[in-house]
Design goal:
10 helices; four-stranded antiparallel β-sheet; globular; Rossmann fold; 273 residues
Length: 273
C-alpha cells in the first residue's frame, strides 16, 4: 500500500528551476532514498509533501490525505527533519523539546530520554550557543521522539560527525524494522545504501530513475570478456580478478557503487545549480 504518493507534480520557478512531472510513491514499511545534488528539486518536492507549497499541478497525498488542503492532519502524523532547521534561538534545547511536545500533544518522556542518550546531547544550553552538529541532533530528537509512523527526512545527517551519522543510520534501520514509512533525501550514499529499499534520482527537477538499489546496480553492472593465450593463463587471470573462466576466455563482472551510479546519471556533474 502506498503511504506517500506524488503524481505529476509541477512547480515552475522559471529558468529551469523547480520540479516537472515528478511522480513516485513510498510503500508502507519502506525506506525510500531521494538522491540529487543541490538545486535538483529534492527540498521543493518535500516541501509540497509537508503542505508548505501548493502544487501548480499534480497531487501529493499521504495516507490518502491531500498534503495541501489537509496539511494539518498530514503534519500531525509525521516526523520531519527539514534541510535547514530553524529554531527559537533564545530557548534552551530542553525548552524547545517541551514546546514541540506540547504542540504535538503526543510523545513519551522515555523515548525522548533514550534519543538524548543515543546522540549524547545535553539539551540544557541555549540553542544559539549550540554547534551545527548539536542543533542537528536536537532536530533529529524532535522528529523521532513522538514515535511517528511516517518520517520525512531532508538531509538528516548534515553537520553530524561520522560516529553520529552511523548512529542515525542504525536508528533509521530500527524504525524500518518496526514498519515505519521513511522518505530520506541525502548526499550520503553509504547511508542510503545501508537503509533504503528503493531509490529515486532527480536531476534538474525531473526523475531520472526510480528503482530498488539492487536493480539499479544490476542495470549498471559491467561485464568484460578477456581472451588469453592458453587455459593456464586464463585460469590464473580468473583467480586474480574474480572472473569466470571458459576455455581461454575470462568474463569479469564489475559492480558499481551507488555513488558511481549516481554520477552516471549526472554525467560527472556535482551540482546542477
Amino acid at each position: 500500500m502506498s503511504v506517500i504518493k506524488i503524481e505529476s507534480l509541477v512547480r515552475d520557478y522559471g529558468n529551469g528551476k523547480g520540479v516537472f512531472d515528478v511522480s513516485f510513491h513510498v510503500n508502507q514499511g519502506e525506506a525510500f532514498g531521494f538522491l540529487g545534488p543541490n538545486g535538483a528539486g529534492k527540498t521543493t518536492t518535500i516541501r509540497h509533501l509537508m503542505g508548505f507549497l501548493k502544487p501548480e499541478s499534480g497531487t501529493c497525498t499521504i495516507n490518502g490525505l491531500d498534503c495541501w488542503s489537509e496539511r494539518d492532519k498530514v503534519q500531525a502524523r509525521l516526523g520531519y527533519i527539514p534541510g535547514e532547521i530553524s529554531f527559537f534561538d533564545d530557548m534552551s534545547g530542553t525548552e524547545f523539546l517541551r514546546f514541540i511536545t506540547e504542540y504535538r500533544k503526543v510523545g513519551t518522556q522515555s523515548r525522548k530520554e533514550e534519543l538524548l542518550e543515543r546522540f549524547e546531547l545535553d539539551p540544557g544550553s541555549k540553542i544559539k550557543k549550540m554547534s551545527k552538529g548539536m542543533k542537528q541532533k536536537l532536530g533529529i530528537i524532535a522528529a523521532f521522539m513522538h514515535d511517528p509512523d511516517i518520517l520525512i527526512l531532508d538531509e538528516p545527517t548534515s553537520g553530524l560527525d561520522p560516529l553520529m551519522q552511523n548512529r542515525f543510520v542504525n536508528l533509521v534501520a530500527e524504525e524500518k524494522k518496526h514498519g515505519k514509512t521513511i522518505l530520506m533525501s541525502s548526499h550520503m550514499f553509504e547511508e542510503v545504501e545501508r537503509t533504503c529499499d528503493r531509490i529515486g534520482i532527480i536531476r534538474k527537477g525531473r526523475m531520472t530513475a526510480v528503482d530498488s538499489a539492487a536493480t539499479l546496480r544490476e542495470r549498471h553492472t559491467r561485464r568484460y570478456t578477456v581472451t588469453l593465450e592458453n587455459e593456464t593463463d586464463a585460469k590464473a587471470f580468473a583467480t586474480d580478478f574474480g572472473g569466470i573462466c571458459n576455455g581461454t576466455n575470462v568474463t569479469v563482472t564489475t559492480k558499481q557503487s551507488l555513488e558511481e551510479i549516481f554520477m552516471n546519471y549526472y554525467g560527472g556533474e556535482k551540482n546542477d545549480e
